[in-house]
Amino acid sequence: MTSQQRDQRKRRTVAVLGASGFVGSAVTAALARQDIRLRAVARRPSHVPGAEAAGGGAAGIEIRRADLTRPGELAEAVAGADVVIHLVMHSGGWRAAESDPASRAVNVGVMENLCEALGGDRAGRPPPLVVYAGAASQIGLPPDRPIDGSEPDHPATAYDQHKLAAERLLKEASARGVVRGVSLRLPTVFGHVPDSRAADRGFVAFMVRRALSGESLTLWHDGTVRRDLVHVEDVAGAFVAALGHPDALAGRHWLLGAGRGDPLGDVCRTVAELVAAREGKPPVPVVSVQPPEGAPATDFRSVTIDASPYRAITGWRPGVPLRAALERTVAALADARGE
């Protein structure tokens, strides 16, 4: 065996489940620069952004297709993995969770099958690290103060109930020593992943697309409601940071956030201004409208996140300023619209 082959065997194998999605594309792009063996797994073919430009990156990259709701395919996808990053969610998001039975099979069933698949004999190796993408909204209605992960969970939507159920399965498997489970509860994630084929369908991207189409930006409140906005590349960096601190993080959930709590009215007005400057037109109006019937109560409560517990262990903090992140998002979506 050559020294290069020995080095390859020493590399950790990191399997990313849901690698073709919006956050998954950013995470695989960040991992492609690490000294690992990267396995990008998704239902449709994954594309690892930046890998070609970097000559394949530092990681050895394997692209694998699998239906992760099928236990056999899931078990094959994670076989031999030292780290599993679980980013799988039902494509319909929180709205589908209210009515589509398939939503729970993806949002919770994949975690059930993953913990079972990883419960085999490890031949003396430590339990695999599983890093799960939870949601800050799992707590339900937030308090009138920054949240830090110590709050009791009272999920208000079916989607957040699914997220919490999957997280609890992971914590239980971690307590049994089957895995070293870490849940990163995500804030409002937005942005654009260069060279990615996955589109951001979140609040900020939605408003940018409306502004580019010349439509007014509508809010279900007076614009003072706050959200903790973090660029997708910073979120990807948080997942990479977790790989270096498995034992300190295992068995718990951790909140990610910028700690600002950005008023959505101000965010929309900045979006309108940036699009207007790019298009050479007056900014579209930002208006308040009557919310639709059944709009979740959490949409009308502000969220600011204190991520200092996670930062104290990993050193992670968001690095892309909000305005710069919005400028990049507007430029990317404008270019995509032009194409």
From TrEMBL:
Pfam families: Epimerase. Residues 14-257 form the NAD-dependent epimerase/dehydratase domain. InterPro entries: Epimerase_deHydtase (IPR001509), NAD(P)-bd_dom_sf (IPR036291), NAD(P)-dependent_oxidoreduct (IPR051783). Coiled coil: none annotated. This is NAD-dependent epimerase/dehydratase. It comes from Streptomyces iconiensis.
